[in-house]
Amino acid sequence: MELSTVMRTTAAVREYTGDPLPDDVLERILDNARFAPSGGNRQGNRVIVVRDPATREELIRCGIPAVKRYIAQIHNGENPWNPLQPCGVDEQTIEAVQVPDTSPLRSADVVLVVCVDLRMLAAMDQHLDRIALVAGASIYPFVWNILLAARDEGYGGVITTAAAAEEPRVKELLGIPEHYAVAALVPLGKPVRQLTRLTRKPVREIATRERFDGEPFEVDVR
């Protein structure tokens, strides 16, 4: 499949047919994904391949508190878990939220728990007066490569992060060392339907010339 086609059709896949994702295909997906860039090429990524149903159910339970808050904030007209906007929903309301009994972590053929060695990161924005983002450059290209490689093999998945809010529970469950962080849980499986065309903002709406408030970046084709 052409790279541009893979990039334009890799959707967030949450529904799966139940068809198996064999180990040899998964190994090929990870073999291609591992060429993602990382800071200093230190490659601090680590993947835990989880197929055991009981373990996956526990991972789902780890994500429930974050999902409850997410749903409560949506209902309250908020942008969930936004670092600039404090949660305006009280704990009692959040706790009362009913979480749907469905999860891609359950229905996918496999769940990948992607971790990163914090000793390998360069968080150059760690002293700024905002939430740190830059260190993610050393792990999320790898996570996205997994999804691109899966799409190329006819499979799909989605980046989930709810369980990361309960990282200590996840670490204890999976025996993850203290100096690692949980970056994402990625369920993978054969999609019920594979989108062939995604909708995104045009380039002129996301790129400007020379400054943030510069002219939209676009080419005059006249």
From TrEMBL:
GO terms for molecular function: oxidoreductase activity. Residues 12-190 form the Nitroreductase domain. Coiled coil: none annotated. Keywords: Oxidoreductase. SUPFAM superfamilies: FMN-dependent nitroreductase-like (SSF55469). The keyword Oxidoreductase applies. It holds the Pfam family Nitroreductase. Belongs to the nitroreductase family. This is Nitroreductase. It comes from Mycolicibacterium phlei DSM 43239 = CCUG 21000.
